[in-house]
Amino acid sequence: MTNIVLKYTIKEEQILREFLLENSISRKTLTRIKFDSDGSIKVNGKEENVRYLLKKNDIVEITLPSENFSEFVRFIDKDINIIYEDAYFLIVNKEINLPSIPSRNLEDESLLEIVNYYFKKKNINTIPHIVTRLDKNTSGLVLIAKHRHVHALFSNMEIDKFYTALVSGKVKDNEIIEAPIRRVTSSIIEREVGEGGEFAKTEYWLDDYIVDKDISVVKLKLYTGRTHQIRVHMKYKDYPLLGDELYGGDVSNISRQALHCTNLKFIHPITDEVVNVRADLPEDIISIIKHNE
């Protein structure tokens, strides 16, 4: 089994400790690297301490310590649709009727438990950390880090998340919704727009309008990540998602919320390259659009 190695080329002279802090290597991570047998920090192939003076074009390699699964974790042997994978993270196309993380209902399988099995099968000696969750019946792209440190890097950076949805009514060509979201007092699950809620921002664009069914095909971008954010914001604007029974959506054409994460775009936390991953629409959404062409 191979550990995850973060590799950097030094651009200017500085102390190794300063470089590590600038690249979000926390003191906690440094402690684990120091005391775990399989972690290390090397400069030009040689282990050095944090007081070492780095020079331009030095190569710094940080070997992250391995991670171990809890004894209570489940491993579920099922296929997953991996759209992108490298040494640091993977992006999968999640199907419907699948929670992103385990729930209290043990009858429910989860994407995380399926990825657990994939890691075990591939002898990846870390554990998966879900970065971008989707609701159980929302399909599409989910970003999963291969180490807690990589997860921490993602938490400090911008990830552009784009969705496609089918909603009732004809929406505006473009609109930004800024409306706070709070939990409905009488429900554990349901959310609503209301005073005292958390700040939430969504933008949408009209992609197509199906006249005879009064259905808009919309592209959306999340600027924040509140629970049920798109579903709540579109209901708030009187454009409920098709199939979204919880928020008053029309269930005559589709049996789940017609929402799919189609695109994730961000700067790679290690290589600084642009990662731009897309996923095709699922058949249940495509069939509604095609049926009305």
TrEMBL record:
Annotated Pfam families: PseudoU_synth_2
Domain Pseudouridine synthase RsuA/RluA-like: 88-235
Superkingdom classification of source: Bacteria
Catalysed reactions listed for this entry: a uridine in RNA = a pseudouridine in RNA
MF-aspect GO terms: catalytic activity, acting on RNA; pseudouridine synthase activity; RNA binding
Record has RNA-binding as a keyword: yes
Protein name, as recorded: Pseudouridine synthase
Protein's organism: Gemella haemolysans ATCC 10379
